[in-house]
Amino acid sequence: MKKNFSGLKRQKYPMPEFIAEALTQHKLFERYENRPAYQQNDYIYWISSAKREETRQKRLAQMLEELKGGNKYMNMVYKGD
């Protein structure tokens, strides 16, 4: 099922290959896709907008941990799972 991104108030950011690969490698793609469209989009922008590779990797690791745990979103409590 395709996620409806039409309700987003800002542009939809395309997923970079390195994020897709990490989600696949960690078997978290389904958990990512089960998150609301705004969260998916926020994660992509937040990770991609980092200027330094070190920061990108740190943010990617945080997203993966949050998806794995299922109870956080951008370091905030998330009760959707």
Task: Characterise the protein shown here.
The protein is mainly α. The protein has one domain. The chain contains four helices and two strands. The protein has helices spanning about 15-25, 30-35, 35-50, 55-70, and strands at about 70-75, 75. A two-stranded antiparallel sheet has the order 1-2. The protein is globular. About 10% of the residues are buried.
Give the key terms.
single chain, mainly alpha, 81 residues, globular, 5% strand
Number of strands: 2
Write down the Rg.
Answer: 12 Å
Question: What's the helix count?
Answer: 4
Poorly predicted runs are none
**Shape from CA axes?**
globular
Average pLDDT level: 92
Helix content: 40-55%
Query: What count of structural domains?
Result: 1
Strand content: under 5%
Strand order in space, largest sheet: 1-2
Structural class: mainly alpha
Give the H and E element order. Answer: HHHHEE
Largest sheet: 2 strands, antiparallel
The span between the termini is 18 Å
Topology at a glance:
Elements: H1 17-25, H2 29-34, H3 37-48, H4 53-69, E1 72-73, E2 76-77
Antiparallel strand pairs: 1-2
Helix pairs in contact: 3-4
Protein name: YdeI/OmpD-associated family protein
Organism: Chitinophaga lutea
Describe the structure concisely for a colleague:
The chain has one domain.
